[in-house]
Amino acid sequence: MDDRIDVIVSTLNKSTNREFECLSAAGFKELYVTLQTHFPDFESLLRIEFELEESEDIDTEKLRALSITPVDILYLLSNEQVKVVRDKMSLSKRGNPRQLILESFANANEKLIENYPALARRDLAALRKAAIDISEAEVGVKFEEITKEIFEHLNLIVDEDVRKSINTAKDKADIVISLSDDDVIVGEAKTFKNGDFAKYSTTSRQVKSYVNRCENQGKRVAQVLIIAPSFSQDFVESAEMDTEINISLLEAEGLKMIYDAYRSRRNPKFSAKLLTKGGLLKAELIAKNI
């Protein structure tokens, strides 16, 4: 009996992992927002079905913490309701509608990853040419979300709990990567439309405040990582000469190169420590040695 129980529990755990892996964190968030848009009482349905307190704020990070998967929330809807969502998304009427919806969100993020450098440059013309419909106002948030997704694909631990704990109403860190229970990398994702990113004084003030808040919570910031389309020479030199914090710089094209190399290898070898070398990181060398 114990052996059979172990098999059942193991199978359920593997099933949950597969269901989470079908969508990235960003894709899960997009799905949740879409369902809320089409069904205004969706959150109430979620609270009733999973017995969530009215006082609790619900977002996809909370759902993940409770092991509520994208598949779980789709099955809250009846077959007819799911077909309504499918039709409003202009998806094919052939095949399983829930699977089609999941695949559409997965494909949308894959397309954004493929065009990641254009997203970093806020190049709406290039994005539209790639059939990506996005507004100017959405670009910054999307760049942050897709950057997190790339790090997740690189098998890094993007720690939303720590990030939330150091954020304030006015000042919000973009990314926190946990290296261990105590060590983290604080990441900042910057889009920039024309030329090289050059706002060092503003950016350094931001990241230093994040570092201080991390350290006040007992975390050691091993490195600050800033991702942007490209950096001015003054920005690079200022980062290298900063004596208060350790800063690494990574160009968006370089991160995409690392991601492509990682995905192309059968047994890739990548460590977050490669992001802690300081200065402008040599993405070509990192990609070559994955």
The strand line-up of the biggest sheet is 1-2-3-4-5-6
Amount of helix: 55-70%
Query: Average pLDDT across residues?
Result: 90
Largest pleated sheet:
6 strands, mixed
The stretches of 5 or more residues where confidence is low (pLDDT under 50) are none
Task: Label the structural class.
Answer: alpha/beta
**Principal-axis shape:** globular
Number of strands: 6
Query: What's the architecture of the largest domain in CATH terms?
Result: 3-Layer(aba) Sandwich
The fraction of residues in strands falls at 5-15%
What is the alpha-carbon Rg in Å? 21 Å
Distance between the termini: 45 Å
Summarize, please.
With 290 residues, this protein is an alpha/beta fold. It has helices at residues 2-21, 25-38, 42-50, 60-65, 70-74, 79-88, 97-114, 116-120, 124-129, 139-153, 160-166, 200-216, 233-241, 252-264, 283-288; strands spanning 157-158, 175-178, 183-189, 220-228, 247-251, 279-280.
Structural description of this entry:
The protein has 290 residues and is of the alpha/beta class. The chain folds into two domains: 2-109, no CATH class; 129-288, 3-Layer(aba) Sandwich (Restriction Endonuclease), CATH 3.40.91. The chain has 15 helices and six strands. It has helices spanning 2-21, 25-38, 42-50, 60-65, 70-74, 79-88, 97-114, 116-120, 124-129, 139-153, 160-166, 200-216, 233-241, 252-264, 283-288, and strands at 157-158, 175-178, 183-189, 220-228, 247-251, 279-280. It has a six-stranded mixed sheet. Strand 5 (247-251), helix 14 (252-264) and strand 6 (279-280) form a beta-alpha-beta unit. The protein is globular and about 60 Å long. It starts with a helix and ends with a helix. The model has no long low-confidence stretch (mean pLDDT 90).
